[in-house]
Fold:
Amino acid sequence: MRKRNDTYKDKNRVRLLRGGQEYFTVLEQVIDKARHTVYILVYIYDDDQTGAQIAEALKRAAQRGVQVYLLVDGYGARISRDFIRSLRSSGVRFRKFNPLFKSKHFYLGRRMHIKLVVADAMYALVGGRNIADYYNDLPDRPAWLDLALYIEGEVVPDLERVCIRGWNSMFEPAGRAKPTPSNIARQRIQAQGIVHSCKVRVRRNDWVRAKTEILTSYYTMFRKAEKEIVILGSYFLPGYKLRRYMEKAAERGVRIKVVVTGVSDVLMAKYAERYLYHWMLRKNIEVYEYTRNVLHAKVAVSDNKWMTIGSFNVNNLSAHVSIELNVDVDNPKFVGEVQESFNGIIEHDCVQVTKAEYHKATLWRRFLERCAYETLRLMLYITTFYYKRKTARGESAEYNY
Structure:
């Protein structure tokens, strides 16, 4: 039987980053203090004000001798050839995660949906935030609500290995990356003076390669929760199996709060999401719509002691098509504060969807919601049918379809 990656490492310091400007300030600081390596894996990288700001930081790092690796998704990145040429001429190693086939109007293949930054095998940022103006605070436009975790400590070399696997999987002439030797990584971490303070583990999802660790974390959360679960989820469309876990948790008396966006950047996804409101309300699962802006976060907290955060959306696109990365945190003090802040967001920035409000919807709107839901399911099936998934020995074949 294949060995499962269930090991937490506890010599870590963590900090939750919420605001757009807060995140990009920390990101630039991480790049500027790097002395050896910087890895960035990101789904969307736009050639805009924020993209230019981070590009300048990467160029500065490369010009002082830091090995800089930037891997963006071939579908999500929207950058010009001149932008790429400028990066490469400054010494930044750049690659795109390529699809099976791509033209101006057509894309076929998996997506590298990870949002991960690692510097010197010492510092890391993990979350759902891409590099684009939508995720930053600008004078005329506040950032979308997104979240990231800043990490220092012994789990960071594991995150560096994720970066290296992603980089080396691409067949482009930009050189292969090598991990920081384990003895050097240990020495750097020891110099940080981090004690046994916060348990963190890396979780990946790559369905084609039989990696379903993030799904397993969600299943375990619903199975073990005793009091309360809060989920902040963009494009929240759980599959059948995960809905069964949610239903059983609710039947045990676990209070489940699902926070979704009230204003979406993908209208069809919002209609499909609203189709599931009826099911959630019928199962006594509380539904809230975030109203201040677009909610793009991907995080869940449970019983004031455990959380998962990263790039994974609770839907079949993340479960079966995209390559995803989360980290799980087991630390009552830290997670309790996070869960309290989420309940504050619910109280001040959200509107609860009640059964009475939901039943006010017209038959025409419910028809559109059902059509959107079924259309998205069909699109996901068409997108993934050509993949043959590796099956880990001893693993259940039951997943969200």
